[in-house]
Amino acid sequence: MKKFVILLMLTALLAVAAASSAADKVSLPKGYERWEKSKEKVVNDKKSLFYGIHYIYVDKKAMKAYQAGGAYQEGSRFVVVFYNIKDEGGKPTRGKKNMVVLMEKNKKQQETGGWLFAGFNADGKPSGVDPVKNCFECHLKEAKATISKYADFK
């Protein structure tokens, strides 16, 4: 019985390690800068986790649903690039890039409502943010108020 419990614990640890290493293997899609790009969006509220200037890039799969207002197909992707706000003569302007976020429709990601979330540093390397605590929970709190619309791409 003791060996069984130890084996069960080891199996559980391996499963957790495999899941976390799979998350570490997520990378930014190559060429996302050539996808449809939103207009500049400025969020001036310093209390908002979306504070800054950002652009949203949407792949072809996601754009179809975006335009139609329907459900997103498996594999639909969004990349959001965040910049610091720099004040130039009282006007908010784009400063240094500070973060890049990937959202991909992925039914295996049950903890995050069927979406894979991944955060990256300005250089495109994984930032190590927790996709549930840092991405999904934030998204639930603030995205409805600040989420983009198809009109942001026209």
Helix count, DSSP H or I runs of 4 or more residues: 3
Q: Return the structural class.
A: alpha+beta
Uncertain segments: 1-22
Q: How much of the sequence is in beta strands?
A: 25-35%
Element-by-element helix/strand order: HEEEHEEEH
- What form results from the Cα inertia axes? globular
- The first-to-last residue Cα distance is 64 Å
> Biggest sheet, in brief?
6 strands, antiparallel
C-alpha Rg (nearest Å) = 18 Å
The percent of residues in helical segments reads 25-40%
Averaged pLDDT, please? Answer: 78
Number of E-state strands: 6
What does this structure look like?
This protein is α+β, with helices and mostly antiparallel strands. Helix content is 31%, strand content 29%. The chain is built from three helices and six strands, in the order H-E-E-E-H-E-E-E-H. Strands 1, 2, 3, 4, 5 and 6 form a six-stranded antiparallel sheet that branches. The N terminus is likely disordered.
Question: What are its keywords?
Answer:
154 residues; 3 helices; disordered N terminus
Question: Helices, strands, pairings?
Answer:
Layout: H1 2-24, E1 36-37, E2 41-43, E3 52-58, H2 60-68, E4 77-88, E5 91-105, E6 115-120, H3 131-146
Antiparallel strand pairs: 1-3, 2-3, 3-4, 4-5, 5-6
A few lines on this structure:
With 154 residues, this protein is α+β, with helices and mostly antiparallel strands. The chain has three helices and six strands.
